[in-house]
Amino acid sequence: MKKIMILNGSPRRTGNTAALIEAFARGAQEAGNKVTSFFLNGMNIHGCLGCFGGGKDPASPCVQKDDMLKIYPAYREADVVVLATPLYYWTVSGQLKTAFDRLFAVAECDPDYRNPQKESVLLMAAEGNGFEETVYWYDRLMGHLGWTDCGKVLCGGVMAVGDIKGREELARAYELGKSI
To answer: Do residues 30 and 4 make contact, with C-beta atoms less than 8 angstroms apart?
Structure first.
């Protein structure tokens, strides 16, 4: 059994990104994994201050005390981190980027600023199909962190809530979850 943490960077609780997450999580749970999901848009998370003041207390690694305190324990325990987001101006949503930046406080707990080793998944929905910049960022992020990419599901052409219904990407997300 693996522990999977999903960071949902969509502002819509029931949108197309949420449908990808649901399919992935269902597959992962059916495979015997534990899934914890965070709807970031409903959380009080402030941007990173770039202060290098974190890392002094592993239980509360950042100097800012907001809803990241709910995410840090799940992040530390997670074997797999799922980045789920709509495509906004050719990259991840601000909600996801803000929360992910704040995970640096955990790396600050290590004297060499090493990040905990994880596996990762990228789930994305978009009105169009311009995923190249985000995939470039994600692949470079995996290399920088030393994480292992388990797979990506990128679903373009889904603007309105529900447009994803019946799309093969939902089956791919389910199968990706089941494979972990």
So the answer is: no
